[in-house]
Each structure stands twice: as structure tokens, then as C-alpha cells.
Design a protein that fits this description.
Layout: E1 8-12, H1 21-24, E2 29-33, E3 42-45, E4 52-56, E5 59-71, E6 74-87, E7 94-98, E8 101-105, E9 109-118, E10 155-156, E11 161-162, E12 167-170, E13 181-185, E14 195-205, E15 223-231, H2 238-243, E16 249-257, E17 261-267, E18 271-278, E19 283-288, E20 292-297, E21 300-305, H3 308-316, E22 336-341, E23 345-351, E24 354-360, H4 364-370, E25 396-402, H5 406-417, H6 425-443, H7 451-474, H8 483-489, H9 494-502, H10 513-524, H11 533-546, H12 551-555, H13 565-578, H14 582-595, H15 598-605, H16 610-619, E26 625-628, E27 631-634, H17 636-644, H18 646-658, H19 664-674, H20 684-695, H21 701-720, H22 732-738, H23 747-753, H24 764-775, H25 781-784, H26 796-808, H27 812-822, H28 827-834, H29 842-854, H30 862-879, H31 882-888, H32 899-911
Parallel strand pairs: 1-2
Antiparallel strand pairs: 3-4, 4-5, 5-6, 6-13, 7-8, 8-9, 9-14, 10-11, 12-14, 15-16, 16-17, 17-18, 19-20, 20-21, 21-22, 23-24, 24-25, 26-27
Helix pairs in contact: 5-6, 5-7, 6-7, 7-8, 7-10, 13-14, 14-15, 16-18, 17-18, 18-20, 20-21, 21-24, 23-28, 24-26, 26-27, 27-28, 27-29, 29-30, 30-32
């Protein structure tokens, strides 16, 4: 490191920097020296992270950019030689490095590799060495043989070259190219070092142009190797773009060129050839940008379109080609935008929208150099060496060409496309697609920071989408369906699109397939837009001429709310004469109802049975419900059915659910809105729907959800003694006979309910349905208990429900206690039904002791308890042996009064 008063400080990579350097750095220019063991042939810098790659004979050396922290307030840039790629028998002509991808070209070969980060093995050996079709070799530069000057083997003679066949290998197939690549890690800190393995991405081999024997190898070799990254941008909204501070790599492209043909590959998520560029004359050099490919020949600067933005858009959004979004295809033919003449073009590079070109006006040597050689194609024919004068050569010029702004070029392309509107449809669409991709590429530029420029680009983007939508709507093309996504991306309303079509002078082309496709889907998607009466009438006329069978579906769209019903009836009658269908009839009924013509409405509804009409609602659900601003809205027809044919309404919504036309929660909301309920109360129509759904044998989670909904609703009404708002469609008996989830009500429950008068305020069906569900096989009693808390045990109704639950949970002792306490009359009936099989012993272990204990204290229920005790003793005496029977009797003599009865029971036992 230079010190003192020197104006230049030279630092060597890998050496520590003294802390005193921070004081000198403000006055010194710093140079970083990178020693190389071999002469460098080419170099490349990664545009993503700043790493360097140096190409030498048979090897590539990578230097990683890093920061050296001198002190907390000062850090400097530095490089570390981190990796060497040993590639046998290769002398690279050009190399490129970008985000871990490495590209190498020789005169006629291209190889692209990816350095993939891997973990070290269990034995701490590196997993990065990767060889294909080559024996393992030690890295020893001193014993390597001289390598040929290309990947492919070329057998030489004095005057001839025998070339191998051209070859293209993509992805995993490129490993078969036979090229050995070995990695050598050279990081100083091996513990923290990142380890890599090689993945082969692309291999392509060309052959010299043999169309004319006068050309040499120099006239056909590859040039202009370049990698182009494109970054993640998110959607085209200002908020999303401005918050993305860190650039995230989205897509990567690689370009290389022969003198007369250029090749552009996508090498990111998918390896594929995007475009092939044919030049009108021999190229000298080319540079690729996200929007253009600039190529120089000896006398002209040419500009071509590229497809990088189309490929990147699909990497960013794999579902971009849908009915919502679209993008011109990657396979779109490339266009030559313009050609500018220059004399003696030598080199080209670019920065943003600036093209820098180097020329030499003196053409004497150029003419001599371009003179065709008379020799045959030979490996020993090198490039012509120019004799340089000892004095400075004159005629060199440096030009900076500002390319036209994106917005201006976009406008020119749009204006130019109008010349093809009436004659060459595909050319018009092609030009507009080019303009669209031009703006899209500009919006994907992470360097786009000015808000005003971005807003202008977004406006142009939407305009280009509208123009493409117009093309696919008005022209008869195979891709007519693209009218829908392009119109959607343009943010045009349906009314605005209709006006654009009406503004066209040529009215013969207005109703092509693309326009009908757009209208059809827009009306089906239930947009939050209501067409005016005039626009709705226009839509009716369009479909009457183009697709009359779609008229019923068009009229069911919420966009057509303002349509004239009498006009709609006229059109429907015309359609019915041609294609009479159930949906046409139902739509006519809806229009008659809208006009207030109840006679016509009844006549149309009486033409079919309820079952068939339910099928018609499956075909067109929007006859019953529409969606506006994300909310389900019942139609006027549904409101009328609620008052007149609520059975048909429930059956129709059930049919919609079974055919996946409506979700369960959506149906719940629908019935509440239909009945005008904005609170948590549940209308009887919704309860009818839940019961009908249970009858339809639903299973799984939906079954348990429905059971809980029904039980909670039954309990809610019973606890508040509230009647349903409408007469239920099905009685308890109907549900028991038609649904397995409703069980026969147990005899002891029926007996309990017969003991006392029912309250006039309690609707008996709710209680019996709740009892039937709890008697059925499907209810999970544990999950039901929280819903039963509002139902008290102070009545036989509430007591029966709670006893049913404790019994279903296997707690028969607890149930017996409840009955003895609150309803002893039912205890024997309960025991006769429930105390069987494994519960049989409860007769003498639970019921008998409890009855004996309770009969000691005479009260209001004394006679009932004594009668129950007699029945219990009869059962126990018949079930047990005499000795066991006597053992269960109480020892205090309470049962002495029953000795004659016990003796008789014992005798019956002995006889049996």
C-alpha cells in the first residue's frame, strides 16, 4: 500500500487494510490490484451483485465483491478470489457472469452453467466438484497439455478443417456435451465459505458458414455474448413499485450472435430459445436491452424489438394468459424498428436510453480488410493484421445517440398501426403488440423513479390494452377471445366499450366473435355496473342478431337491471318460437312480474312442474339471486316465490347448492336477506333449507355444522317461546320418515311429554324435532351441550332434552337422579327403555336403592315412588337369584311390607 504524499493508493485483494487508510482515502485514488497466475483473455462483471469473472486459458477465475469494515464509520470495497472453474481444453473468447450463471463462448461454441449453492457433506468434504464424461484430474497447471482453441474437436490438415455437426442441448441434456468442469474453492475462510456445484444450462455448437469458400473462420465466429437480468416489480401500481427497495431477480436472458444471425435465450425458470435475429448484412457487435437489440454493421446501426418483457411477465405471473390478464406471446415475430447509417462502425455499448458508438472514418484499411480471401477455409487463416502507423491515427469518432423516448415511440407505433386497420389485420395487431411490450418493459424497469413518468407509462399501458381489445373485437382472428382480458386491463367500463364500437364508421364489422365474447363474459361475471336503458337496449339488439339463444342469460345479468321489460318480452317471444326452453319460460315469467302482469306470470309458471323449474334455476341461478358489489341480492322473482311458492324456492336453492352453484354460507345470507333479517335471527325459510339439506343426505363437516345450526335454532325458539315466522315445510313425522338423521322419539320421552299440558306459546314441532335429532344417530352430544344451556330443566320439555343428552353420553345414573328429582312418573318408563344389556345392573345397583331411600320420607310423590318401587322389585326379582335378590334388599326393614310380593316373585323365578 502506498503511503505518504502519493495521490494513488494501490491495494491488493485479500490483504488487510490499515486503519490509518481511512484518513488518507479522502485524498488518494484507490486502486485494487488482482494478481493472476495466467494471462487474462476476457472479463465480465455481474450486473446484479458486482462480482468479477476473469477468463484465462482452461480456467475462469471469480472474484466476489465485498465490503471491508475499517472502523464503525468507514468501509471500503474489496474483492476476494473465491472460486476457479477449471474447464479442460477451452480458450474462452468471451464470458458473461450474472447472478450465479456463467456463459462462455469460443469461436463457434456456447456453454452456459449455473453455480448452485450446496451444503457440505457429513464428512466435511465439498460437494461442488461436477464432471461430465471426463476422467478426474488433479488441478496442476504445470502438467496440463496445450488445449485446442474451441470446445469441439477440430481435426486439422494443412488446408482443410473437418467440423462437427451443429448441436443444441437444453437443460439437463446439456450435460451430454462432454465438457468437464471442476470447481476449486480459493476462499481464505473455508468454514464460512459458500460451496457450489455446477448445473449445465445450455450448450450450443455451430459450424462455419460454408456457403462461400472464400470466408475464413474469422468471418463466422461468435461475438457479443451478454446476459440480461430483469427484476421483480409486482403489479403495475405506484404503491407496490415504490415500496420495493431491494431488486429481486425475476428472469435472466442470454444473447450471443453469429455475423448474420443473433440468438436470444431465456435461461431462468425455463431454458428456451426466444428469438432469432436475421441481419441484412454482417454484424460487428450487438448490445441487448430490456426493450431493444442494437446491432452495428460496418456502416449502419440497426434496432430490433425483443421479447424479454413478455417472458418476464410470464415468470412473474404464470397465470397471466387468462380471461382477466393477457400479454403478447413470446413467439411473436421480431421487428426491425429503424436503421441509421454511419461510416466505419467499430464498437457499441449502451447506458439507459443512450447508445455509445465508436467509428473510424478512414476506410482504406477497412476496404483492404474486408477484401475476401482467396484461400480455402483453414484453421491457420487468422484475422488480417493491420499495419498501424507510428503516428496517431485520424478518423476516430465517438457518438452518443439518444434513443427516442418510450412514450414517443409508442405513439408513433400506434399511429403507424392505423394504416393497417382496414387492410392487414395481423400487421395492425402485431404493431400494437410491439407497442404494448415496449411500455410493459419500461414499467418493469426498477430504475423508473419519477412518478410523473410512471403515471404516463401506466396511461399508455391501459391505452394499448384498449387498442388491442378493439382489434380482437372488430377483427375476425383466431385469438378473438383476447378481447376480454385486454379490455379488462384497460379499465374501460362496458358502457365505454359500447361507445367505442358505436363510434366506428364501418358498422359491418362491429359484431365479430371477439366483441360478442367480451359482452357475454362481462354480463356473466356480474360486474358492478348497471347499463343505462339505451345501452341495455343496444345489448339486446346485438345478441338478438348475433346469438339469440343467449338472450335469457343476458337478461339475467345485474348489468341489465334497467332494461325495458316489454322490449325484453318481445325478444324472448321471438327466441321461444325458434328455441323453446325452460330458461326462456322462467325469464319470461320474471319479465312479466317486472311489468306487473301477474296473469302472464302465472301462465308461464304453470307450464312446468316444480321439479323441472328447479332444474331451470340450476341452468340460470341468476333468476333467483344476483351478486352486486360482492353481496348476494335476491331477485324480484325470488321475493315473489317467497310469498307464493316458498317450497319451490327452498327446493331450488337446495338444487343450486347440490350443483355447486351456491355455497352454504352464501345460501344462509341469501335467505336472511330474502326475509329482511339484518340481525342474528334465523327465518323459518332458512330452517326449512337446513332441514331439506339434511334430508339430502349431506355428510362430513357440513352435516355436523347443519345439526348444530338446527339444534341451536330449535333451542333458541323454545327458550324464548317464539313461533316461527312461517309455517314449516316439513313436520317431525315427515323428517323422521325421510331422513336418517332424525330418529324415532324414545317412548319414555313421549310419556314424559304426555304427563303435563303443553304451553300454548311453545311450538310443538320445534321440541319434537329437537328430541328426534337427539334420538338419532348423527348428533355429537358433547358438541351440542353448550347450545342447550338456555333450555332450563324446570319443565318436562327442558328436562327431556337434558336427560336425553346425559343418557347419550352414557351417564344413566345421572339421568335417573334427574328423573327421580323432577319427574318420578317417567323413571320406570326410562328404565325399561334404557337399562338393558350392559346397563341392566343399574336396576338393583342404582334404581332400587334410590327408590328405597326416597320412600322413607313420605311426600307428594310417595305413591308414585312406591309404585315405581314395586315395578323395580318385580324386575329385580325376575333377574336375580334368590340369594342375590335378598342381598340387594335394604337391611333396615323398609321392604318388609313387600315380603308377600317378593315371595311370589321368587316363586315365579323358581318356576322359570
Amino acid at each position: 500500500m502506498s503511503t505518504g504524499n502519493s495521490r494513488v493508493c494501490v491495494r491488493m485483494v485479500g490483504h488487510e487494510v490499515e486503519e490509518s487508510y481511512s484518513a488518507l482515502s479522502k485524498e488518494q485514488m484507490s486502486i485494487v490490484e488482482m494478481p493472476l497466475s495466467d494471462p487474462p483473455l476476457c472479463i465480465s462483471c455481474c450486473p446484479v451483485n458486482g462480482d468479477l469473472l476473469v477468463g484465462c486459458k482452461n480456467k475462469l477465475v471469480m472474484f466476489c465483491l465485498k465490503y471491508l469494515v475499517i472502523n464503525p464509520d468507514f468501509s471500503v470495497l474489496d474483492f476476494e478470489r473465491s472460486l476457479i472453474l477449471h474447464i479442460d481444453n477451452v480458450i474462452p473468447a468471451e464470458i458473461a457472469l450474472c447472478a450465479g450463471y456463467v456463459a462462455i463462448t469460443t469461436e463457434l461454441d456456447v456453454l452456459i452453467l449455473k453455480l448452485k449453492s450446496v451444503q457440505k457433506g457429513a464428512d466435511d468434504t465439498e460437494l461442488c466438484a461436477h464432471k461430465i464424461n471426463a476422467p478426474e484430474k488433479l488441478v496442476d497447471e504445470g502438467i496440463k497439455d496445450e488445449a485446442p482453441s474451441a470446445f469441439s474437436s477440430q481435426f486439422e490438415s494443412d488446408d482443410f478443417v473437418i467440423c462437427q455437426k451443429p448441436m443444441e442441448l437444453l437443460g439437463e441434456e446439456s450435460e451430454l456435451c462432454g465438457i468437464s468442469v471442476t470447481l476449486e474453492s480459493t476462499r481464505l475462510n473455508t468454514e464460512d465459505a459458500e460451496h457450489f456445484q455446477v448445473c449445465y444450462i445450455l450448450y450450443r455448437r455451430f459450424t462455419p458458414d460454408l456457403s462461400s469458400f472464400v470466408f475464413s473462420v474469422e468471418e463466422t465466429k461468435l461475438h457479443s455474448l451478454q446476459m440480461l437480468p430483469m427484476y421483480q416489480t409486482g403489479s403495475f401500481t405506484t404503491d407496490n413499485r415504490k415500496t420495493a427497495a431491494k431488486k429481486e431477480l425475476l428472469s435472466l436472458f442470454c444473447f450471443f450472435s453469429l455475423p448474420h444471425v443473433g440468438y436470444l435465450y431465456a435461461i431462468g425458470n425455463l431454458v428456451e430459445l426466444l428469438s432469432t435475429y436475421q441481419y441484412s448484412e454482417k454484424s460487428e457487435q450487438a448490445v441487448l436491452t430490456p426493450q431493444f437489440l442494437h446491432v452495428i454493421t460496418s456502416n449502419s446501426l440497426q434496432c430490433f424489438t425483443v421479447r424479454c418483457s413478455a417472458a418476464a411477465a410470464r415468470d412473474e405471473d404464470p397465470y397471466i394468459d387468462t380471461t382477466v390478464k393477457a400479454c403478447p406471446p413470446v413467439s411473436l415475430d421480431v421487428c426491425a424498428l429503424r436503421m441509421q447509417l454511419f461510416i466505419g462502425l467499430k464498437a457499441i455499448c449502451h447506458f439507459k436510453n443512450h447508445i455509445i458508438i465508436l467509428t473510424k472514418a478512414d476506410t482504406e484499411d477497412i476496404t483492404e480488410r474486408r477484401r475476401p480471401s482467396r484461400r480455402l477455409l483453414s484453421r491457420k487463416t487468422g484475422s488480417v493484421t493491420l499495419t498501424a502507423s507510428s503516428e496517431s491515427e485520424s478518423g476516430w469518432n465517438l457518438y452518443i445517440v439518444n434513443t427516442i423516448s418510450t412514450i414517443q415511440l409508442y405513439k408513433e407505433m400506434v399511429d403507424y398501426s392505423r394504416t393497417y386497420e382496414n387492410s392487414r389485420t395481423e400487421s395492425c395487431i402485431h404493431l400494437l403488440s410491439e407497442a404494448h411490450l415496449l411500455v410493459r418493459a419500461a414499467l418493469m424497469d426498477p430504475g423508473l423513479m419519477e412518478l410523473e413518468e410512471e403515471e404516463e407509462l401506466l396511461a399508455s399501458f391501459k391505452e394499448s390494452c384498449a387498442l388491442l381489445g378493439d382489434c380482437y373485437s372488430r377483427f375476425d382472428t383466431k385469438d378473438y377471445h383476447l378481447s376480454l382480458p385486454y379490455y379488462k386491463m384497460s379499465d374501460l367500463s362496458m358502457t365505454e366499450v359500447l361507445k367505442r364500437m358505436d363510434s366506428e364508421e364501418d358498422r359491418a364489422q362491429k359484431y365479430q366473435r371477439g366483441f360478442i365474447f367480451y359482452l357475454n363474459h362481462s354480463l356473466y361475471e356480474e360486474l358492478n355496473e348497471e347499463l343505462s336503458k339505451e345501452s341495455a337496449a343496444k345489448v339486446l339488439q346485438i345478441f338478438h342478431l348475433a346469438e339469440p339463444n343467449q338472450l335469457p342469460h343476458v337478461l339475467c345479468s345485474p348489468c341489465m337491471k334497467n332494461v325495458c321489460p316489454s322490449m325484453a318480452m318481445d325478444y324472448l317471444q321471438k327466441v321461444e318460437r325458434i328455441v323453446p326452453t325452460l330458461v326462456v319460460t322462467l325469464t319470461k315469467a320474471a319479465m312479466a312480474l317486472k311489468m306487473g302482469d301477474l296473469e302472464t306470470y302465472k301462465r308461464e309458471m304453470d307450464r312446468y312442474t316444480e321439479t323441472k323449474m328447479a332444474y331451470g334455476f340450476i341452468v340460470e341461478p341468476r333468476l333467483l339471486r344476483q351478486q352486486r358489489r360482492g353481496q348476494v341480492i335476491p331477485t324480484e322473482l325470488a321475493l315473489h316465490l317467497k310469498e307464493t311458492q316458498h317450497g319451490l324456492l327452498v327446493a331450488s336453492v337446495l338444487a343450486l347448492y347440490e350443483n355447486s352453484k351456491i355455497e352454504l354460507e352464501e345460501a344462509n345470507t341469501y335467505f336472511k336477506m330474502l326475509c329482511g333479517r339484518n340481525d342474528d335471527s334465523v327465518p323459518q325459510l332458512l330452517v326449512d333449507f337446513w332441514e331439506a339439506l339434511l334430508v339430502a343426505c349431506c355428510q362430513g363437516e357440513v352435516l355436523q355444522e347443519l345439526l348444530l345450526k338446527l339444534i341451536s335454532q330449535y333451542v333458541w325458539r323454545l327458550s324464548r317461546m317464539q313461533y316461527p315466522d312461517t309455517m314449516p315445510l316439513k313436520t317431525t313425522e315427515d323428517l323422521i320418515n325421510s331422513c336418517d338423521h332424525y330418529g324415532l322419539i324414545f317412548p319414555w320421552v313421549i310419556f314424559m311429554m304426555s304427563l303435563g299440558p303443553r304451553s300454548a306459546k311453545v311450538y310443538p314441532e320445534d321440541l319434537s324435532k329437537l328430541q328426534s335429532l337427539l334420538c338419532g344417530p348423527s348428533v355429537n352430544v358433547t358438541s351440542v351441550l353448550p347450545f342447550l344451556e338456555p333450555l332450563l330443566e324446570d319443565s318436562n320439555a327442558g328436562l327431556s332434552i337434558h336427560v336425553l343428552c346425559t343418557t347419550r353420553m352414557g351417564e344413566c345414573e345421572k339421568s335417573i337422579d334427574k328423573l327421580l328429582e323432577r319427574c318420578p312418573e317417567a323413571v320406570i318408563s326410562y328404565a325399561q327403555h334404557e337399562l338393558k344389556d350392559d346397563k341392566r345392573a343399574l336396576w338393583w345397583t342404582k334404581l332400587l336403592p334410590e327408590l328405597c331411600k326416597r320412600t322413607r320420607c313420605p311426600g307428594e310423590d310417595y305413591s308414585i315412588l312406591v309404585s315405581a318401587l314395586k315395578e323395580t322389585l318385580s324386575v329385580v326379582a325376575m333377574e336375580l337369584e334368590l340369594r342375590d335378590f335378598l342381598n340387594v334388599l335394604p337391611e333396615d326393614g323398609t321392604a318388609a311390607f313387600f315380603l308377600p310380593h317378593l315371595l311370589q316373585c321368587s316363586q315365579r323365578k323358581l318356576l322359570t
